[in-house]
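The methods section describes the discrete structure representation at length, but only in general terms. Since the whole study asks how a given chain folds, the encoding of that fold should be made plain. An entry of this sort, consisting of the sequence and the corresponding backbone structure tokens, reads as follows:

. . .
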Amino acid sequence: MTYEFFARTDKGRVRSNNEDAVAVDSDAQIAILADGMGGYNAGEVASGMATTFIRTEMPRWLAQAGPSPRPTDVRRALETCVENANHAVLGASLSNPDYAGMGTTLVVGVFISSRLILGHIGDSRCYRVRDGVLQQITRDHSWLQEQVDAGLLTPQQAAVSPNRNLVTRALGVEPDALMEVNEFEVAPSDLFLMCSDGLTDMVSDEAIADIVCQSLTLEEKTTLLIDTANAHGGRDNVSVLLVQAAAAGDQRG
């Protein structure tokens, strides 16, 4: 299996700064997206620290692990790496008054042959497009998702709730990161979309599906997704990271 990556982040139409961060290592086949939170520029610091730390440490571990590491070992390494990133962000928050209370969501994918090891914290999402069907494969760590799970709100009510940005987990705010990790089989032609809530709050899943299923390059799809979010108001920073899988030897335009 081979993988093609493309990522872009945009501050949107309302915010004066961008607290999202994206990072890709195409050689190590790692994709990382984070949406920071905190006063002043602290959210920007948290997301930047998290993505930079993981982008540095995970490829180093993979290089030492050899050409075919076991998915269970990759999972443990990812958990350790994210815990260390959590400690770094929390330490900076506690030691610098300007960064007090900062944190970040996180979604990180490590592609090993035909497997995806996917970790996430908070409400940044990962979707998979397979055979023209868009499916969310992460579950938001948010107050609204808890209300939906408990049967207190319908998904339709949650979509218009003013409380949809209240996350119940974040990296850098507690001593333990509480990352959720899942493993997925990757099929040829699968497309994975990682995004911050600046996209999903502005653009419906149906509209996202319409865009990503078009015969466009990854760059064109990314640009169209961000432009659509901004056209609908762009109330938050918008980040999109696309990963296209293909069987080894396939020729892609």
About this structure: Residues 91 and 194 are 27 Å apart (CA to CA). The chain has a mean pLDDT of 93. The radius of gyration is 17 Å.
